[in-house]
Amino acid sequence: MCLGIPMQILSIDGFLACCTAKGVEREVSLFMLQHEPPAVGDYVVVHLGYATERVSAQDAAAAWEVYDQMLSVDEAA
Q1: Domain range for residue 68?
Q2: For residue 30, what are the contacts with CB-CB under 8 A and spacing of at least 6?
Q3: How far apart are CA 3 and CA 13, in angstroms?
Q4: How many Å apart are CA 22 and CA 49, to the nearest integer?
Q5: How many angstroms separate the CA atoms of 1 and 43, rounded?
Q6: Are 53 and 35 spatial neighbours (Cβ–Cβ below 8 Å)?
Q7: Is residue 46 classed exposed, middle or buried when 0-12, 13-18 and 19+ CB atoms within 10 A define those classes?
Q8: Is 49 helix (H, G, I), strand (E, B) or coil?
Q9: For the domain that residue 36 is a member of, what is the CATH number?
Q10: Which residue, 4, 28, 58, 77, has fewest beta-carbon neighbours within 10 Å?
Q11: To the nearest whole percent, how much of the chain has pLDDT over 70?
Q12: 7 exposed, middle or buried (CB, 10 Å; 0-12, 13-18, 19+)?
């Protein structure tokens, strides 16, 4: 199963962004969002190295809540 991971944009250089989530930084392509370019500080959903959509900070936090619950269940098993 593949999940889109919400990440916050730290910096942008053309179609590449440095994004962070849970203390992990990744280089992410913004090419798929060129019709509505995100800005530094925005949250995006990242799938396979590509930002696929912009989301609110609240939606990003809600997604991480679910992911954290999934990980805690997996660790308990």
Answers
A1: 5-76
A2: 12, 15, 16, 17, 37, 38, 44, 51
A3: 25
A4: 16
A5: 22
A6: no
A7: buried
A8: coil
A9: 2.30.30.140
A10: 77
A11: 94
A12: buried
